[in-house]
Automatic annotation (TrEMBL):
Organism: Methylobacterium radiodurans
Protein known as: GcrA cell cycle regulator
Pfam family membership, one: GcrA
Organism superkingdom: Bacteria
Amino acid sequence: MEAGLSWTDERVALLRRLWEDGQSASKIAAQLGGVTRNAVIGKVHRLGLAGRAKPGEEAQSVSRAARAPAPVAEIETAIAVVEAEAPEPVAIVAHRPAPAFPPPPSPAAPTALAVSQRVTIMDLRDSMCRWPLGDPTTPDFRFCGARSITGLPYCTHHAEIAYQPATERKRERRVAGFR
DNA sequence: CCCTGATTCGC
DNA sequence: GCGAATCAGG
């Protein structure tokens, strides 16, 4: 199913923008979706984008590129800058800092231990519960994020749901579905 | 342990 | 061309 995502022009343009914006490969991968940070890094190298401008170096690739004949890499850099300056409806989404999903104001939600943190894939750590919350195809998709049981991918709460004994499972009609 | 980019190499 | 595995480093 989720096919169709590859290095389309749009995705490459977005990759360029974010990379030269200083975003890390993993963050870019998360925003692009469907690719790992390795894929991003690999692509970056294939595009000749490796090595980003450091604080102390020239940040005037445009004028420099416009002044004299330049290597392919520099031309590509110039193109990327132009693309970055032009309004780009398709990629603008990437600049939105946070998904701004309603964190329950809940004054009265003193649930037991640290329960659901609702984290995005970006904030999901190895030791965090990977129980999915919501529709993976929408931006509001999150993972539980609570502390997971050592050796298991879920927190105590979700592990109970995930690992119900066959017998119990029958009775416990889908108790707490995917919410 | 968390993370970073770089490189290799089978596909 | 692609990207997982791996490497090297913070």
